[in-house]
Amino acid sequence: MLKKIVLTGAAGALGSRLRAPLAAMCETLVSTDLAAALDGVADNETYVKADVGNAEEMMALIEGAEMVVHFGAIADEAPFEQIMHSNFMGAYNVWNAAHKHGVRRIVYASSIHAMGMYPKTTRITGDMPHRPDSFYGLSKCFAEDMGRMYWDKYGIEAVCLRIYSAPGSVANARALGSYLSYDDCVQLVQRSVDTPVVGFTVIYGVSNNDRSPVDNSAAAFLGYRPKDNAEEFAEAILAKTPKADPLDKAQMCHGGPFATVPLGVSGVQYIKKMSEGN
């Protein structure tokens, strides 16, 4: 059992589901986010309100940690100045503090948007060059490259989880390949924490989907064995899906709608606006 794990982004959709499983893997879990407080704090869990973009706060928070599970960031496209603070500077602050305090490993929530402009006809692997679709995706490229650099120079291990779709549901045809269930997401993080040696590893955050467009074979040593499969939703989803337009990057690129969202504009709000015909 680890002595101390730090979890950033603990109030988020994914971070909130990781708190209990991570608390069971360590003597002390320190959870952090910008929320005033968290509900259901475990007996061995401490919550500290902190900003990942604040170097001093991260330096104090990470002291004594063996591992950091870094899920704290803006999880959408946004103006570059906002992405710079939370995603670029946040990642730097975490890795720098980890180096200063002798942290063994960082498990990082990367994203498919680091590779979003690749066409879906290309089955992407963990060692292909980045091809981001947004400032958000660019920030994930930066953090991945920094993780590799800190591994090469200082021996800080890193597992970068390129999460494909936000877990929870299969709402469209894209999700038939990109779906990641909450249970599989938790398993993915657990295996990233308890595998004895990981070096620098990139793995895609997808479930065991028949239509998965990514190749996770190089990371099999982590022991991640996803159990859920979006194929059970395929018949219903495809029955209501219009014919694909091969010239529409939103349909043809791994990044989905983010491949067409203007830089700096919220992808969530842009997609909602387009769906409403505005």
Automatic annotation (TrEMBL):
One Pfam family named in its UniProt record: Epimerase
Q: Which InterPro entries match?
A: Epimerase_deHydtase (IPR001509), NAD(P)-bd_dom_sf (IPR036291)
Recorded hits in Gene3D superfamilies, A to Z, give: NAD(P)-binding Rossmann-like Domain
The alphabetical list of record keywords is: NAD, Oxidoreductase
Ranges where the NAD-dependent epimerase/dehydratase domain occurs: 5-168
Q: By its UniProt entry, which PANTHER family does this protein fall under?
A: 4-EPIMERASE, PUTATIVE (AFU_ORTHOLOGUE AFUA_7G00360)-RELATED, NUCLEOSIDE-DIPHOSPHATE-SUGAR EPIMERASE
Its family remark reads: Belongs to the NAD(P)-dependent epimerase/dehydratase family.
Output this protein's name: 3-beta hydroxysteroid dehydrogenase
